[in-house]
Amino acid sequence: MQTADKLLVRALKGETLARPPIWLMRQAGRYLPEYRALRTKAGSFLDLCYNPDFAVEVTLQPIRRFGFDAAILFSDILVVPHALGMDLRFEEGRGPLLDALKDDGDLARLAMDQFHTKLRPVYAAVSGVRATLPAETALIGFAGAPWTVASYMIEGGSSRDFAKTKAWAYQRPESFQRLTNLLVEATASYLIAQIEAGAEVLQLFDSWAGALDHASLLRWSLAPMKAIVDRVRMSHPEVPVIVFPRACGAGYLDFARSSFMHGLGLDSGVPLDWAFTQLQGRIALQGNLDPQLLVAGGEAMTSAATKILDTLGQGPFIFNLGHGIVPETPPEHVGQLVDLVKAWRRP
Ligand code: CP3
Q1: Cα–Cα distance between 85 and 131 in angstroms, integer?
Q2: Average of pLDDT values for 165-174?
Q3: Integer distance in angstroms from the first to the last C-alpha of the chain?
């Protein structure tokens, strides 16, 4: 099947389909026993990411089990700072750890010279997945957005209040702009390499967009993501891009109006009727089942999923969660959700 005929691509090009395509953020991961087994064999999470055979296998696991309409490359947003020269490790129960950037001297030591060499295993994984994916399944490449990636680089890991990152952005905006520009350049180049290896759709994750006030959202989330998409589009105008400025509230209106992207990812807090009337006339939408409803299952899950389908299924739409699958999720519930979405028909 040609890329243009795949359900995900058709929805992103603005088609309202008889039933929307479905894939789920973090569809590969610890909720799957076959993932846990391979991770134990690989040794660590980063060994999974940088070994193309393992990364291909983990990407395909949820496709085999559930028949999603799209596969998402198995990797992590933090391979970009890693390839720029930062130290990165993942510790059990603590999430990612980096040696935090402290000043302009640290910033000046980040460099692109080894960038694509270090990321070569990721590109090999993209090609490997593309070669083995079922004909109708689309392949999504991805990267983190500059604001979210910068926050990990400055905090040295996950954060509750982003105090160091905000102090840097508010007190030294020119310096923070330099870091943002570097991430724009690196990320655009990374995404273009993923397209050239076989990615058919891209998603930019701005997981912490919701931490920004409105003016900062426009400056540090929307503008850099637009700069990345503009660059990718110069060489690959046909490849659709989904942006996910998670939890940005009424800020979603600014994204929909600027419409530099093809699809907009919604978190679970976005009211469905508001999204339908205010956003969907301008752009394809993706989302937004609460990941905890996928843990709960049963009537709570099926009625919430049906409400999403009945509202947003009236326009160009991709069924997804409002954030990633959590490790506690029973795999049977994922199977039930996929069956429900695939059986639904637009009235
Ligand atoms: O969606 C997919 O199936 C593709 C793979 C994927 C991972 N991370 C694998 C992963 C994607 C798209 C990401 C993106 C990512 N990584 C984001 C943006 C999306 C989001 O969740 O907000 C962020 C913020 C990160 C950074 C990151 N990576 C954190 C904070 C953590 C620790 C949290 C956790 O769940 O342990 C990771 C680790 C990580 N990335 C895991 C997986 C499967 C768990 C690693 C493991 O222990 O096996």
Answers
A1: 30
A2: 98
A3: 27
| Total Cβ atoms within 10 A of residue 224 | 23
Burial of 49 (0-12, 13-18, 19+ CB in 10 A): buried
pLDDT of residue 78: 98
Question: Residue 96 Cα, ligand 1 centroid: separation in angstroms?
Answer: 9
Q: In 102-162, which ranges are continuous DSSP H helix? A: 104-109, 115-132, 146-155
Q: Name residues contacting ligand 1 (CB within 6 A).
A: 25-30, 39, 45, 72, 74, 76-78, 90, 95-96, 142, 144, 148, 158, 205, 207, 324
Identify the H or E element spanning 264. strand 263-265
User: Residue 281, CB half-sphere, CA atoms under 13 Å: how many?
Assistant: 6
Torsion of CA 152, 154, 159, 160, to 10 degrees: -130
CA dihedral 140, 144, 145, 147 (to 10 degrees): 170
pLDDT at 6: 98
**Cα distances (angstroms) measured from residue 215 to each of 223, 227, 259:** 11, 17, 18
Report the C-alpha gap between 20 and 307 in whole angstroms: 14
Q: Examine the residue annotation and report whether 76 is marked as an active-site residue of this protein.
A: yes
Instruction: List the residue whose alpha carbon is closest to atom 11 of ligand 1.
Output: 76
> What are 105-134's pLDDT values in tens digits?
999 999 999 999 999 999 999 999 999 999
- Reported as a single tens digit per residue, the pLDDT across 10-48 is 999 999 999 999 999 999 999 999 999 999 999 999 999
Distance (angstroms) between ligand 1 centre and the Cα of 324 equals 8
pLDDT at 93: 82
DSSP string spanning 7-44?
HHHHHHTTPPPSS--B--TT-SSTTSHHHHHHHHHHSS
Residue (of 107, 63, 102, 51) closest to 84 by Cα position: 107
